[in-house]
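Good morning N.,

You mentioned wanting to compare the apo and holo forms, so I went ahead and generated the holo version with iron/sulfur cluster. This is what I fed in:
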Amino acid sequence: MLTIPDFQQLSEQVSSCSRADVHQALQAPHPGLQGLAALLSPAASAMLPELARRSAAITAQRFGRTIQLYAPVYLSSFCTNRCAYCGFAADNTMDRRVLTMAEAEKEMDILHERGFNHILLVSGEAPAKMGVDYLAELARRTRDRFASITIEVQPLSTAEYARLFVAGITGVAVYQETYDRRTYDQVHLSGKKCDYDFRLASPDRVAQAGMREVGIGALLGLTDWRCEGMALGLHLAWLRKHFWRTALTVSFPRLCPAEGDFQPLTTVTEKDLSQLLFALRIYDPDVGLLLSTREEERFRTGMIGLGPTRYSAGSCTAPGGYAHPELEGEQFAVGDQRTLTEVCASIQAKGHDPVRKDWDSTFQKGF
Ligand code: SF4
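and this is what came out, ligand included:
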C-alpha cells in the first residue's frame, strides 16, 4: 500500500533545494521526485516565469492547444460526515435535498443542451440517500448522451466501482483532501471519512475496477501546499506504476469560507497555486490538470495554455440549481460566474480550442 512520508520530512526535502536544483529539474527530461521537490521549493518561487515556460511547452506538446470543458451536477447535499471545512457537513443546519431520478436527468439534459459532453456527478457522502443503485440507474439512462460521466461521491468497494463502470460511469474522483495524517484527523471530525487509509486506497480500487480515469487531489488551505504537492507526486507515481492503463488527473481546489465559519488553516495564494500546477505538469507530462470555477475569471484566463487541461464552466454547486437557479444550498461559492459561452470565448481569444465534445466513447465502444 502507498505510504506517505511524514510532512516534516517532506518539508525538509523541499526546503533544502537550491536554485541550481531547480535549474537541473527544469532541464531534466524526467525530473523525478527529487526534481519535483526542487520545483516546489521556495527557491523555485523566485523562478516562476521559467517554470511557466517549461510547463506551457510540455502542455502544448502533450495536449495541443485545447482545454476540455466539463460541468458538475450536484445530486445530493445530504452527508453523514463532519468535515470542518465543508458546507454540506452533517452538523450544518441547511435545507438538504437529493434529486429524484427525473430531476437529476433534467439537470443533465440542460447541460447537454448547453453543449457539455463531459459531466461530473457530485454528492455528499450519505449512501442511504444516494448510493450505487441510484448512480447505476442514472448512468444507464444518460450514458448515450455524454462522452464521459465521472463521479465524485463516497468511496466505494472495487465491486461497486466495477458495477458502475458497466452501467456507464467512466471515471471517479476521490480527493484525499490532505495527505498529512495529523491535519486529516484534525479536520475530519466524524463519519466514515475519518478512515485516512480507506480513502487513500480508493484510487487503487477505482483502477482495479477498470475505470478509464481516476482523479486525485488535495484541498489547498489545510496545510503546507508544497508538502501536499510532494504527496500528490508520490501518489501519481504509485498509480502510474501499478495501474498504467488508467488515465490520471489532479485537482487543486483552494478552500473557500464555508457554512459554519471555517477559515482556511494556511494561506495559498494564486502564485503558490500556479507553482504547484507548473511543478506537477513538469513532473508528470501526461497528467490531466483541472482548474474549477472555485477560481476567479482573471486567474483562470491567465492560466490558459500554461498547464491546466480541463476547466469547469457555468457551474452550479446546489442540487437542482441548473433547472432552478434561485435554489440555495451551495457546497461552496463559485469564483468564476461566467457562462459556458463566455468561458469558450476567453479560451478562443487566447488561441486555444474549447473542447466540449470528443469521440473517446465512440472510439472505445468500437473495441
Ligand atoms: S467534504 Fe464531502 S464528505 Fe465532507 S462534509 Fe462535505 S460533502 Fe460531506
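Confidence is low (pLDDT under 50) at residues 361-367.

Happy to go through it together on a call whenever suits you.

Best,
F.
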